[in-house]
Amino acid sequence: MTTRRTLTDLMNEVAGRAHEWSSPQDLGCDRMTVMAAWLASDDPVAMLFLLAAVHPRREVEKCVELATAMSFFEPMRYQAHLMSRRLPGMNFNGRSLFYFISLYQRLRAALQAFEDTERSRLGLELATAIRVVVPDPFTLVGPAA
User: Fold this and answer.
1) Distance (Å, rounded) from C-alpha 74 to C-alpha 77?
2) What does 83-143 look like in DSSP terms, one character per residue?
3) 104 burial class (0-12, 13-18, 19+ CB within 10 angstroms)?
4) Euclidean distance between CA atoms 125 and 29, whole angstroms
5) 16, 35, 64, 67: least CB-packed within 10 angstroms?
6) pLDDT 10s digit of each residue in the chain, 145 long?
7) Cα angle, residue 62 at apex, residues 61 and 65 outer, rounded to 5°
């Protein structure tokens, strides 16, 4: 009997061995295993962490889409607002918001303030919103318009 690995477990393993976050990380398992875990996941933090591991470069459009899709959650609404004010080409001091690692860090910090039951409910809603924007984490191809 094979136990099914969750995306949270997979990403915890990646975090333990990751070094240089400016290049794609070795996930340590095949693409089908990761896709199955992605589709079954209810952990939005692990989902954003996977996107950061696979796509470390700046992804302006997808980051804006993700923040907008998750804007029913106040911290993500604020993030989407900040992104709209710092569109590409604008000069500003500080870190760029248009990296998946930035969304991951913001969401992780925001969810820590909630109790387990509320975090679980929000997690499911946020994970669904992420999958709507990014059905395939390897290609970032969204649904056809």
Assistant:
1) 5
2) HHHT-TT---SS--S-SHHHHHHHHHHHHTTS-HHHHHHHHHHHHHHHHHH-S-TTT----
3) buried
4) 27
5) 16
6) 345 679 998 898 888 776 676 678 888 888 899 999 999 999 999 999 999 999 988 888 999 999 999 999 999 999 999 888 877 666 666 677 888 999 999 999 999 999 989 999 999 999 999 999 999 999 987 655 4
7) 90
